[in-house]
Amino acid sequence: MLNFEKGDGLVPAIVQDEETEEVLMLAYMNEEAWKKTLASGKAHFWSRSRNELWLKGKTSGHIQEVQTIYVDCDQDTVLLKVHQVGGAACHEGYPSCFYRKVEQGELKTIGTQVFDPKEVYKS
Question: In whole angstroms, what is the distance from residue 83 CA to residue 42 CA?
Fold first, then answer.
């Protein structure tokens, strides 16, 4: 169903809030993440930085319940429409990972934090 070969075993996964249609994040899936997402109904991804499979929200509790999945024409990108539990998709505590906007050549924070990452990700 998906072509994992084009991206060296990974496909981009765009995640969008099913209700507001706000783009929440971009992540990557390998075949295992894809299968776990299909089987569980919860978004799973491949972490390129940690080199491991992860369930989105496992630590924070802000899981993504998948409502609808779309596959692009080349079958190498997916769009997940999700219910975002807890109101935050970003590990920085914002509803969307796209909480900054370029204005006059500089980054401006336009989002409002839902949680303090120092409190949620205590190690």
Answer: 10
Q: Which two tokens stand for residue 28?
A: 């990557």
pTM assigned to the model:
0.93
CA dihedral 44, 48, 53, 55 (to 10 degrees): -40
The string of pLDDT tens digits covering residues 32-82 is: 999 999 999 999 999 999 999 999 999 999 999 999 999 999 999 999 999
Rounded to whole angstroms, the Cα distance separating 117 from 121 reads 6
Find out whether 120 and 114 touch, Cβ atoms under 8 Å: no
Confidence of residue 123 (pLDDT cuts 50, 70, 90): low
Provide CB contacts within 8 A for 1, sequence distance 6+.
71, 75
Provide the token pair at 79: 């769009």
Domains of the chain: 11-113 (3.10.20.810)
